[in-house]
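Internal tracking record. Fields below are filled automatically when a chain is submitted to the structure queue. Please do not edit lines marked as system-generated. If the sequence contains nonstandard residues, flag them in the REMARKS field before resubmitting.
Queue: standard
Priority: normal
Entity type: single polypeptide chain
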Amino acid sequence: MPRERDPLVVGRVVGDVLDPFLRSITLRVTYNNREVANGCEFRPS
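SYSTEM-GENERATED OUTPUT FOLLOWS
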């Protein structure tokens, strides 16, 4: 059985309160008022 490695669960901060979850964020990158989908859109100057 694998041991839990999430520090919030190990430290008993949220282990009994919340269902298991993945920490993630939504990230949007804009350059010159244009949304960048991936780094290949940047051209060397």
